[in-house]
């Protein structure tokens, strides 16, 4: 469950094996669980997460997520030494354990359907999202033509219009809104004229 599992510990942290990933290739990446974790945004929550990792001898993390997850990972990494010092001072870990776990290594992978991270061709999740969007468009196009109706489809992407733009191009959409290029005044009349043609 993401950072929630890290903070809560217990059965949320377990060793993965081949059986853990058997028969999940067709599922979305969130099959491993995902949760917004208010506790991890606090030092007390990160202290609990550090204790759970240290108890298991885990000093390597692979964080897959967007802005919130990767920002949290960076904060956790920068605080690691201080968190261990605090655990040692409070008698929750020994000096030997603190020494053995003195370094936290983190690999961050951008898992966001928005495709809004520079330095990568495509973020994890974008391709799957585009496939889903095109499946929906293929399914509703026949209905739209049959009923001679205009259909409006909204896609995700937060502040990035990549999914809208690419799926609009791929489907031959007649009109497209993207956040990077907000419509000018009078767009309603222009759109109606275009659709009327």
What's this model, at a glance?
By secondary structure, the protein is mainly alpha-helical. It has helices at 3-8, 43-56, 67-89, 95-100, 126-147, 162-171, 187-196, and strands at residues 60-65, 105-110. Helices cover 46% and strands 6% of the residues.
- Which of globular, elongated, flat, extended, rod-shaped describes the shape? elongated
- Percent in strands: 5-15%
Which structural class fits the helix and strand makeup? mainly alpha
CATH architecture of the largest domain: 3-Layer(aba) Sandwich
The CATH class of the largest domain is identified as: Alpha Beta
Number of domains: 2
Number of strands: 2
Strand order of the largest sheet: 1-2
Run of helices and strands: HHEHHEHHH
Mean residue pLDDT: 91
Uncertain runs:
none
Helix amount: 40-55%
N-end to C-end Cα span? 50 Å
User: How can the largest sheet be summarized?
Assistant: 2 strands, parallel
CATH topology of the largest domain: Rossmann fold
Organism: Grallaria varia
InterPro entries: ATP_PFK (IPR022953), Phosphofructokinase_dom (IPR000023), PKF_sf (IPR035966)
GO biological process, one term: fructose 6-phosphate metabolic process
Keywords: Cytoplasm, Glycolysis, Kinase, Magnesium, Metal-binding, Transferase
């Amino acid at each position: 469950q993401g950072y929630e599992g890290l903070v809560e510990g217990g059965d949320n942290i377990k060793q993965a094996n081949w059986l853990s990933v058997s028969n999940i290739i067709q599922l979305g990446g969130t099959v491993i669980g995902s949760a917004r974790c208010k506790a991890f945004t606090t030092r007390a929550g990160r202290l609990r997460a550090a204790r759970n990792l240290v108890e298991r001898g885990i000093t390597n993390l692979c964080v897959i997520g967007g802005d919130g997850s990767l920002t949290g990972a960076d904060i956790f990494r920068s605080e690691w030494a201080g968190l261990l010092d605090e655990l040692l001072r409070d008698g929750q870990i020994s000096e030997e354990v603190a020494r053995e776990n003195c370094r936290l290594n983190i690999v961050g992978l951008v898992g966001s359907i928005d495709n809004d991270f520079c330095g990568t061709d495509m973020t994890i999740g974008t391709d799957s999202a585009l496939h889903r969007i095109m499946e929906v468009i293929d399914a509703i196009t026949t209905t739209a033509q049959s009923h001679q109706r205009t259909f409006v489809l909204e896609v995700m992407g937060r502040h990035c219009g990549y999914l809208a733009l690419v799926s609009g191009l791929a489907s031959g959409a007649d009109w497209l809104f993207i956040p990077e290029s907000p419509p000018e005044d009078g767009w309603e009349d222009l759109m109606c004229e275009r659709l009327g043609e």
